[in-house]
């Protein structure tokens, strides 16, 4: 972890570089004000500095300013200008911009027309630079034939690369490959559990939920309902609705945890409020039985 003294020294160095009209120095100084690194956060100042770096053609600054314009951080929201800068940054080969623009084309975001073939090319270019999240998206493209012919072997290879690079989604998807099998790779429940755990440690909601299911059913690991409940609780903290439902079931039956009908109801209602079918059904039933909200 960087000490306050080291951080302050870096800020001083970036400021000195910026004074010498270095586009890299300006970009890094913009990050400093954007994140509040040893200085008070100042999004407006960050945007001003990033604009200077953009004028000097820095692709990282273009990507960061694009983000600020997209979210209205330190400046007025401007989706058109945001997209323009992102495209310029990607055109200069900046990995983060390539990845984000790839997502836009893959999912039709930010007013961009869906173009799976274009998305694939962008993910590939970013992946070749070692961008972890792009590797995961590239693997998805190979697995599901998005913009490229289905190739399970290539999908597995890129999931493994994304996993090795620490991308939690890549780790999770690799776990699914081992859980279900992919191409010529046979299912390996123990390996899947190992990967669910690794992804869960990085806060992946579905990985935590699936790990809980493995513990509950003894899949790839010794059956342990208490550990299952622990996993469900962690998944709930990260917003997984299936975990709300499974945790509610455990609380109703006292499986792995002391029975608590009131808490079980709270989890089912929470799931229903977020669109989970089981939660919705329970919420309707609960409303019929208890029409008075205070009950």
UniProtKB/TrEMBL annotation:
This is Uncharacterized protein. Pfam families: Sel1 (PF08238). Belongs to the sel-1 family. SUPFAM superfamilies: HCP-like (SSF81901). It comes from the Eukaryota. It comes from Effrenium voratum.
């Amino acid at each position: 972890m960087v000490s306050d003294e080291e951080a302050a020294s870096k800020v001083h160095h970036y400021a000195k570089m910026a004074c010498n009209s270095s586009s890299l120095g300006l970009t890094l100084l913009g990050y400093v004000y954007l994140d509040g690194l040893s200085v008070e956060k100042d999004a407006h100042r960050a945007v001003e500095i990033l604009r200077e770096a953009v004028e000097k053609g820095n692709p990282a600054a273009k990507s960061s300013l694009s983000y600020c314009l997209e979210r209205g951080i330190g400046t007025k929201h401007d989706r058109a200008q945001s997209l323009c800068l992102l495209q310029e940054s990607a055109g200069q080969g900046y990995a983060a911009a390539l990845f984000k623009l790839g997502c836009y084309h893959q999912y039709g975001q930010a007013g961009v027309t869906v173009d799976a073939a274009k998305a694939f090319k962008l993910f590939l270019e970013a992946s070749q630079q070692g961008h972890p999240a792009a590797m995961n998206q590239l693997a998805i493209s190979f697995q599901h034939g998005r913009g490229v012919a289905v190739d399970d072997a290539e999908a597995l290879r890129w999931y493994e690369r994304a996993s090795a690079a620490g991308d939690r989604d890549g780790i999770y998807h690799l776990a699914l490959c081992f859980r279900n099998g992919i191409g010529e790779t046979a299912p390996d429940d123990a390996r899947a559990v190992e990967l669910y755990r690794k992804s869960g440690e990085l806060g992946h909601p579905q990985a935590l939920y699936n790990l809980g299911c493995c513990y509950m059913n003894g899949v790839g690991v010794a059956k342990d309902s208490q550990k299952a409940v622990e996993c469900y609780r962690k998944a709930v903290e990260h917003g997984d609705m299936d975990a709300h439902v499974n945790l509610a079931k455990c609380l109703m039956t006292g499986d792995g945890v002391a029975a608590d009908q009131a808490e079980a109801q709270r989890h089912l209602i929470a799931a229903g409020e977020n669109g989970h079918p089981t939660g919705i059904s329970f919420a309707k039933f609960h409303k019929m039985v208890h029409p008075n909200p205070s009950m």
